[in-house]
Structure to design on (761 residues):
């Protein structure tokens, strides 16, 4: 189009525009592609890579951002040694690992089950799908707050419902404040919120299986159970693994919902490593120390995700 | 004629536009932003500050943040050298960090020039809110809001003949506001789970909040009275044997016992607001809370008036209570420091301090609290006066946040989450605090 409509040489401005156009005409496709992606690359460098390098640098210092006038001192790997030998950090890691294991496990089981149900055609199909998807559309802040109200032992609906089915007096137990139940409470709320997300991914997997495979299996008189194990599960496995990857990464850095529900308590029984990091960085102002912790977490997630993606690729190739 | 009118209209428009801009610029130059927590006394300060605007023409803007995010929000603002706040009513523990890091304007010269004497304020508030280093004449704030932990109780329940008789039979003494911590626990046990007017009630409400400062501000009221000290009085920053002394261990065990025996279910992460809700809804017989809330509680139509009574934190081997409250400081990054100082000068005046108390703020001025009619000026005034004479504060070091969060963790782990023993919790606290002070170069 540019070649067909040359700029008329009207004055200096037009001549200048003409020169730009001439220059553009001389650019290769590769150069133009680079010109298009350059702003994005610069933005990524500015908001992702630069802070990462800065945090890495800070992690070797004793810098405190609430004392900017005190010059940062190079402390070598002291922060890393402190973190890796700190029992409280390992405890927070265990809390996080347990939370990730149980919440992701339950979400995959329930999400896959719901996807199998929703994949069938039945009356009210759209209504139920929408209803199931509602929790994941809410903000974690809203979810955290309303579950806090629901779980209040004296006024919350949750205890009344449990009491109705079990006969246990509603005021005799507490979900958020009990050392044994609080970790399960955050698993329960996270599962409630994110199972629909896993269901959507599984549903995409189920819908991608061509009907003719099932038709062929029926011709071969394969039982529904056999069809599930030999067709449905293997063909949706990459999708399930993808869901595990997404939810695993998200839950590893879970902060907002846990913070609103329990603030890491009672004591430290639900203190995930993100809450520990936030406390070190923005409440204790240990910027150097918290940068080191952030780097350790980044390397952990990045390393685990890379290993997992390789496994996922192998499954896809099968 | 028409042309003339148009010209006049045009001139008037230009004139009003010019005036508008000028007025806008003037107003912009004469406006102060005061930052504080969002709570009852803040509303009283808004009301009080109208007098300042009327007198000086300087408009006041307020930035109030809920207590749970108050420290995070404003310490961030100060650390980033923000210009949001011209004046700040900062927590007493911030004073060390704010002074060392240059966030607050030093007020010594200003006080001297304007004949504002710190001798005119309650000594505990001067040390707690204004001085850094402590007990030295270096002033960074004017005591603005005196506060301490106190207790409220249901006077109407305590007055019921059948309850009084039952209590006397059981404990061989009258059902009166407790004067010792043992009596407090006994009284709380008496009310725990009792049906009053067809409703189950609970003995006591105490602070248990984990995230900010709640459980520390609560537990210290027991710790102090059993013998807890922050450090060796003869050897600063020497903690072992003081923080984890036998008395401290008893104090911590007491707080846990009180929490376990006598609080309402679900109070595992509760601070000021939860206490107010519990008391206002008629759920508890006694409530630990800050004096700042007592004027509002006294006015409450359901539990206020004749139904509410107030008492000082009970003694054990000795008697202290946790200091709260704040001083007002000028932020050194403000573009309106002169106007901000003008506000402090106005606020320090005895008649303004008197009105501050009448509106629901707690004045720290001796002219107010030492006035002969002060104890009769409000039902909670006598308890407030007694409390201000026995206050003790948390660390106000520049590293106070680390010290506070360490204590929050260790105490909550033991009291609420049943982790370890009281001795283990306090030994770990000594270890945590030693580490902080070592990093601060105190050893």
């Amino acid at each position: 189009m540019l070649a067909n409509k040359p700029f008329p040489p009207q004055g200096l401005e037009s001549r200048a525009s003409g020169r730009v156009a001439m220059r553009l005409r001389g650019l290769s496709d590769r150069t133009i592609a680079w010109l298009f992606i350059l702003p994005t690359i610069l933005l990524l460098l500015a908001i992702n890579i630069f802070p990462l390098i800065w945090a890495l640098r800070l992690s070797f210092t004793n810098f405190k951002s609430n004392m900017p006038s005190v010059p940062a001192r190079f402390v070598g790997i002291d922060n890393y040694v402190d973190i890796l030998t700190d029992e409280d950090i390992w405890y927070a890691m265990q809390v996080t690992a347990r939370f990730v294991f149980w919440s992701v496990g339950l979400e995959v089981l329930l999400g896959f089950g719901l996807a199998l149900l929703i994949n069938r055609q039945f009356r009210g199909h759209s209504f139920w799908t929408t209803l199931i998807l509602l929790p994941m559309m809410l903000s974690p802040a809203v979810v955290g707050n309303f579950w806090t109200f629901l779980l209040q032992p004296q006024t919350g609906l949750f205890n009344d419902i449990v009491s109705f089915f079990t006969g246990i007096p509603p005021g005799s137990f507490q979900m958020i404040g009990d050392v044994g139940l609080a970790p399960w409470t955050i698993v329960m709320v996270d599962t409630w919120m994110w199972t629909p997300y896993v269901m959507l991914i599984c549903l995409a997997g189920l819908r991608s299986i061509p009907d003719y495979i099932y038709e062929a299996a029926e011709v071969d008189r394969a039982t529904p159970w056999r069809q599930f194990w030999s067709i449905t599960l293997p063909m949706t496995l990459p999708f399930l693994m993808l869901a595990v990857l997404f939810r695993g990464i998200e839950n590893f850095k879970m902060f907002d919902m846990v913070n609103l529900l329990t603030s890491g308590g009672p004591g430290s029984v639900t203190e995930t490593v993100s809450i520990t990091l936030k406390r070190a960085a923005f409440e204790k102002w240990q910027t150097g120390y918290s940068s080191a912790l952030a780097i350790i977490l980044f390397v952990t997630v990045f390393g685990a995700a890379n290993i997992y993606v390789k496994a996922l690729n192998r499954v896809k190739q099968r | 004629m028409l042309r003339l009118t148009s010209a006049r209209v045009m001139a008037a428009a230009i004139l009003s536009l010019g005036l508008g801009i000028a007025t806008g610029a003037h107003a912009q130059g004469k406006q102060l932003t005061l930052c504080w927590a969002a709570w009852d006394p803040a509303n009283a300060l808004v009301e009080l500050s109208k007098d300042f605007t009327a007198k000086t023409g300087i408009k006041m803007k307020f930035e109030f943040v809920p207590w749970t995010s108050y420290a995070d929000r404003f310490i961030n603002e100060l650390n980033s050298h923000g210009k949001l706040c011209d004046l700040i009513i900062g927590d007493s523990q911030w004073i060390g960090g704010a002074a060392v890091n240059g966030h607050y304007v030093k007020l010594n010269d200003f006080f001297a020039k304007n004949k504002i004497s710190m001798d005119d304020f309650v000594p505990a508030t001067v040390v707690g809110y204004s001085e850094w280093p402590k007990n030295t004449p270096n002033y960074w704030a004017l005591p603005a809001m005196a506060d301490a932990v106190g207790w409220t109780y249901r006077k109407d329940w305590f007055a019921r003949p059948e309850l009084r008789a039952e209590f006397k039979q059981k404990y061989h003494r009258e059902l009166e506001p407790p004067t010792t911590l043992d009596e407090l626990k006994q009284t709380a046990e008496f009310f725990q789970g009792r049906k009053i007017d067809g409703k189950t009630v609970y003995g006591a409400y105490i602070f248990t909040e984990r995230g900010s400062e709640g459980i520390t501000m609560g537990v210290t009221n027991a710790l102090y009275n059993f013998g807890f000290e922050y450090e060796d009085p003869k050897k600063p920053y020497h903690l072992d044997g003081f923080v984890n002394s036998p008395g401290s261990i008893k104090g911590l065990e007491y707080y846990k016992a009180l929490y376990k025996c006598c609080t309402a279910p679900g109070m595992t992460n509760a601070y000021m607001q939860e206490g107010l809700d519990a008391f206002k809804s008629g759920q508890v017989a006694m409530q630990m809370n800050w004096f700042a809330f007592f004027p509002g509680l006294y006015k409450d139509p359901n539990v206020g008036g004749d139904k509410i009574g107030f008492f000082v934190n009970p003694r054990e081997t000795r008697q202290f209570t946790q200091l709260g409250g704040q001083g007002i400081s000028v932020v050194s990054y403000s573009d309106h420091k002169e106007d901000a100082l003008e506000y402090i000068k106005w606020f320090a005046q005895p008649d303004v301090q008197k009105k501050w108390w009448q509106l629901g703020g707690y004045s720290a001025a001796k002219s107010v609290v030492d006035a002969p009619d002060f104890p009769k000026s409000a039902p909670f005034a006598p308890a407030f006066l007694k409390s201000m004479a026995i206050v003790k504060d948390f660390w106000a070091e520049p590293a106070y946040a680390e010290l506070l969060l360490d204590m929050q963790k260790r105490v909550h782990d033991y009291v609420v989450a049943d982790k370890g023993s009281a001795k283990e919790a306090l030994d770990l606290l000594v270890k945590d605090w030693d580490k902080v002070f070592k990093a601060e170069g105190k050893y």
In short: Chain A touches chain B through 31 residues (CB under 8 Å).
